[in-house]
């Protein structure tokens, strides 16, 4: 359910590659050395945390946000994130309101505005497991519910319960315990 669209997209892309590579005439394939990679390239999009980018970046600022390097995003966009967070979530209605991490709206907005996935190199890798927060992302992590809890759940995850869960609690198939880890499609 949660990953069906991603599975369909992945299968479509793989099918395109498979069909494109099924040719009887291998003589028209240019060698890699002849491909020209010179020129100027520009980043057009970034979404380390897509749900956050989608919700908190104003539509007229999407292009500017997407080309700003992450080390500058907090300074440039935290105020917009804070405004949108306060407008969106009743959990931040009063001065001094915090989320379950103890972050007030301004502090949480500065965390959200820097669009990077943090990774613990020497500890548990998880989006949230009750103790560790934003130390990475495991396949089974319920990222959207965690984000909803941090945005709407208030100090102890009890505020706004109807806004704090997407009610998708697991993948439609179990993940594998060895590489490639993703469940086989259908």
From TrEMBL:
Signal peptide positions (record): 1-20
Name of a matching Pfam family: DUF4331
UniProt superkingdom: Bacteria
InterPro entries: DUF4331
Keyword terms of this UniProt record: Signal
Protein's name in the database: DUF4331 domain-containing protein
Species in which this protein is naturally found: Tenacibaculum singaporense
């Amino acid at each position: 359910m949660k990953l069906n669209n991603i599975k369909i997209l992945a299968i479509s892309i793989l099918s395109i590659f498979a069909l494109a590579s099924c040719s009887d005439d291998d003589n028209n394939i240019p060698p890699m050395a002849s491909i020209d990679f010179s020129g100027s390239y520009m980043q057009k999009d970034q979404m380390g945390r897509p749900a956050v980018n989608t919700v908190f970046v104003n539509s007229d600022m999407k292009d500017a946000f997407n080309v700003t390097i992450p080390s500058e995003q907090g300074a440039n966009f935290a105020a917009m994130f804070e405004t949108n967070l306060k407008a969106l979530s009743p959990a931040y209605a009063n001065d001094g309101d915090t989320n379950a991490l103890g972050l007030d709206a301004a502090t949480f907005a500065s965390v959200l505005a820097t669009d990077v996935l943090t990774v613990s190199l020497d500890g548990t890798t998880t989006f949230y497991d009750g103790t560790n927060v934003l130390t990475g992302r495991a396949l089974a992590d319920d990222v959207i519910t965690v984000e909803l809890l941090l945005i709407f759940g208030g100090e102890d995850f009890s505020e706004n319960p109807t806004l704090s869960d997407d009610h998708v609690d697991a993948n439609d198939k179990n993940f594998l315990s060895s590489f490639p880890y993703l469940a086989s499609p259908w």
